[in-house]
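Dear colleagues,

As part of the handover before I leave the project, I'm documenting each prediction I ran so the next person doesn't have to rerun anything. This entry is a single chain, and its sequence is reproduced below.
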Amino acid sequence: MHLVDTTMFFCPRSGGVKRYLLAKQQWLRRNAPQIVHTLLVPAPQRAVPGLQTCDALAWRLAEGYRLPLNLPAWQRALAKLQPELVEVADPYIPAWATRQLGLRLGIPTVAFYHSDMPRMLSQRAGRWIAPISRSYLRTLYSGFDLVLAPSRAMHQQLRGMNVSHAALQPLGVDVEVFNPQRRSAQLRERLGLATDVRLLVYAGRFAREKNIATLVATATALGDPYHLLMIGGRRAERASRHVTILPYQRDPERLATMLASCDAFLHAGDQETYGLVAAEAMACGLPVIAVGSGAIPELVDRQVGCCAGRADATELAAAAADVFERDALALGSAARLRVEQRYSWDIVFRQLLGHYARLTSRIAMPESRPVGAEG
């Protein structure tokens, strides 16, 4: 069985989609060796086993992304791989190439709706474009056998577009890598912080929709004894008395060590379609302080953190104070347990293979593993 994943959301500074795809590749190699797995992404890329690139005309975007522009070239690259099932992780040229190839060859195709396209375009071009983008997505996804959504919020959005063949498929976390046992005092020493500082952390792209300025304002509003570490910048710098910036971390183990060495995760984004880095922080034993918008409320409630009503520094500061008043350590332990029980990659990918198996008899489910085992 040859499974191909394809997307433009794959570059050196990529976020959740890239982590999902690489985690899937590793899990399949360990747990379902009967499935040959290939990734098809825009060139250039670092050499990775099982990764193929399409060196076609593309438009360079922020953060190193490349938007493919040549539909025939992408379709030829896909056809050359001779896939038996294709999953696409974006709604652009790779998606149209996947749809056309699936219809031509009669193979099952899956689209994963990772990005809230109507909202993203509305913020950049105005509200007038939202109904156009919803119509576009409805037309595109009508040619797929299945459309997956990472959260109930995204699933409801698809149903609102009359995409009736949509299914819920959460993302997950490597609970061995993202683990509270990675906590180290060396991070505070490196940052020059006292041991009693309440160290908040944000990790991710410094993009507009992440409301970076609100994060900084929240740290300022909190003042002592709080400090905010922001991971994902271009360089290391002390941005202010209460904010330190460190570069983007490509190595998941280094990122996990940094997360586990902090006291709580702070997130001001209000457009999350799943909230993967929040889940990774929870796996590291951190309570989450976030905006209760998008998919975040599906991950975070008062048992594992606190949600603010909107992306406002005063409200987020109050939520942070609430977490520490209620016992941040206990909330972090509950957060870790929630991820283990619901969002380990082993649980998630077994669900995913169940979706695939309903599309093709070529998928055989691997044997169950002990609870808590991660592959």
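The chain has two domains: 2-172+344-357, 180-341. Residues 70 and 264 are 44 Å apart (CA to CA).

All the best with the project,
I.
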